[in-house]
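Hey, sorry to bother you again with one of my protein questions. I've been puzzling over a protein and I'd love to understand its fold better. Take your time with it, there's no hurry, and the full record follows here:
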Amino acid sequence: MTQSKRKNLRRAALTLLASAVATLLLLLAGGEAYAHGYTNAPISRALYCQMGTARNCGPIQWEPQSVEGPKGFPNGGPSDGRLCSANLSQFGQLDDQRNGGWPANSVSGGSSYTIKWKLTAAHATTDFKYYLTKPGWNQTAKLTRSALNLTPIATFPYGGRQPPSSVSHTVTLPALSGRHMLYAVWTIADTGNAFYQCSDLQF
């Protein structure tokens, strides 16, 4: 075999290897096999990271749909201080309050508001629930159950049905003022997990 043919074979093998590696990385770093869902109204911290509006976010910028943790909130679920990351250390940036540095969605207290999800892979669903922080909550500390009103502002049961890829729920926001957080919980019926999204609000 000539040197030229050996070079061509080596080049072809390297091209094939590079293609295989690229495909594997795509699957591992946010491909549809691992995709689930995120809130895009109000825009969640995870989505703000993907958009580049929030920076220094770590891996969540590539997979805002993957904030998945144990279900059962508020009696179970993620640990206090790790609610926004759903106990996932790789998404720990979501738990950092950044001294109020997260972008906030502007909302009006006492008005109706439509919460929207983008589901990149739907599941049989128990329900969607939405929680808000209490007046006077500690805005500089990582989110805990004690900061939240543990009676949801709204619950939308699905009875095991699979929702569409775009989900909308209209709620009535309480008459709050100042900065708050919305904690959105999508509980899955056929696994032990739920999906969690934290959104910063300015009333």
Q: What stands out?
A: The chain has two domains: 1-30, 36-202. Residues 12-35 have pLDDT under 50 and may be disordered.
